[in-house]
Amino acid sequence: MSDFLQIENLTAGYHDAIVLNNLSVSIERGQSLAILGRNGVGKTTLLETLMGNTTIKRGAIRWLGQDITRLRPAERARRGLGWVPQEREVFASLTVRENLEVIARGSHWTLERVYKLFPRLRERAGNYGNQLSGGEQQMLAIGRALMTNPQLLLLDEPMEGLAPIIVEELSEAVRHMCAEEGLTAIIVEQHPVLALSMSQHAIVLERGTVTYAGSSAELAADGERLNQLLGVTNRALAS
Ligand SMILES: Nc1ncnc2c1ncn2[C@@H]1O[C@H](COP(=O)(O)OP(=O)(O)OP(=O)(O)O)[C@@H](O)[C@H]1O
């Protein structure tokens, strides 16, 4: 059993509305997880629940051997959970450099290390948050999360709306972070093949419960199973 992250029989949602239903999953350090599923099945809600932004009715979340089920979001972040929300949330009135510096914690992740991962951010260091392309904003959002020194990075549809070349750059950066920098990621992503290529394990959600849990590589190699689970066509799989 993993000491890294364990979600046990979790039932959670927003006030009285239940979205996740008796969901269990566990993650080992260095074994990134893709969360797949059709629209509205609870993928974002699972990330929000890990960060402490939902109502937990039953079950438990254990992180590094400790029960964090009732901890506030800021305390979870302090303990090493890093969050890159879908909305990116960079400060429009700060420069790229200021966006990164304002959140720095004197950690493994320095300005220099983030610039090395995302050379485009170095080139745009003096640009304000609202003077960036969508891809650059996403890189900055990931850079900001890294500056908090996370052990686990939660990425919510990081490639959404981005050009193929930027998707390639970003997915390579995520793979590098995990392979070389000791990070583990949970990735919610609409493109199954991409998500599976960035992870070792995957779960598929259907109405707030797990319908597949297993190896990403095995699922990626089984188009028929993917189609069954996600209802995606072969053409969508290839894109
Ligand atoms: N803040 C909220 N308050 C109440 N209900 C919400 C809230 N956010 C999401 N929901 C509901 O929870 C359910 C799951 O939504 P969620 O965003 O987790 O799904 P998802 O799998 O991430 O979908 P998508 O792929 O479309 O982003 C949906 O029925 C949604 O309407």
Automatic annotation (TrEMBL):
<keyword id="KW-0067">ATP-binding</keyword>
<dbReference type="GO" id="GO:0015807">
    <property type="term" value="P:L-amino acid transport"/>
</dbReference>
<dbReference type="InterPro" id="IPR003439">
    <property type="entry name" value="ABC_transporter-like_ATP-bd"/>
</dbReference>
<keyword id="KW-0029">Amino-acid transport</keyword>
<keyword id="KW-1003">Cell membrane</keyword>
<protein>
    <submittedName>
        <fullName>High-affinity branched-chain amino acid transport ATP-binding protein LivF</fullName>
    </submittedName>
</protein>
<dbReference type="InterPro" id="IPR003593">
    <property type="entry name" value="AAA+_ATPase"/>
</dbReference>
<dbReference type="GO" id="GO:0015658">
    <property type="term" value="F:branched-chain amino acid transmembrane transporter activity"/>
</dbReference>
<comment type="similarity">
    <text>Belongs to the ABC transporter superfamily.</text>
</comment>
<keyword id="KW-0813">Transport</keyword>
<dbReference type="Pfam" id="PF00005">
    <property type="entry name" value="ABC_tran"/>
</dbReference>
<keyword id="KW-0472">Membrane</keyword>
<keyword id="KW-0547">Nucleotide-binding</keyword>
<dbReference type="GO" id="GO:0005524">
    <property type="term" value="F:ATP binding"/>
</dbReference>
<dbReference type="InterPro" id="IPR017871">
    <property type="entry name" value="ABC_transporter-like_CS"/>
</dbReference>
<dbReference type="InterPro" id="IPR052156">
    <property type="entry name" value="BCAA_Transport_ATP-bd_LivF"/>
</dbReference>
<feature type="domain" description="ABC transporter">
    <location>
        <begin position="5"/>
        <end position="232"/>
    </location>
</feature>
<dbReference type="GO" id="GO:0016887">
    <property type="term" value="F:ATP hydrolysis activity"/>
</dbReference>
<dbReference type="InterPro" id="IPR027417">
    <property type="entry name" value="P-loop_NTPase"/>
</dbReference>
